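Figure 2 data, in text form.
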Amino acid sequence: MSLLARVSARQLPRCGRLHVVTIRHFAEGKGDGNADRGEPAAAVPNTPSPFQLTPEFLKQEHASELARRIPQNQRGYTPQTLLTAFGRSCETKLPDVETLSWEELFRLNNQKLNKLGLGVQERKYLLWCLEKFRQGEDPKKFAHNPPPKKTQRGWGPPVRKKPGPKPGPSKS
């Protein structure tokens, strides 16, 4: 499989000019093992050539990817009941949960949740739960309570309790 087949259109904007030239090199058959034998590089269907990677194309590709990532609501959840099933009072942390649509819920990202005022751990947990639901898992199986408070502070020895009276006969 050539490098062109392994690189998706989503990864290309991050690559830079050198990598695009390398991809063109592989696409023309110069870097493929079959090119030495006089055979052309295998064409990959439905893969845009590097010349088609315009900003408009990438925006369309990103929008279609987002549309594919919104799961169908076949289990009878509403956004509010889904957030309730996630636990950790997720339904109270987002404003206007009653008016939130299914598509808006699954288009939430880290920046949007940060603007809504959610903390880091709350954002991570909510995005993790949404991704697990996208993958088809049941919220009853993966939702869990937050970890308990730590009883040891820092890297040192554990916190000592105040010593009480020693057991045994009293000296009075």
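Caption note: The radius of gyration is 27 Å.
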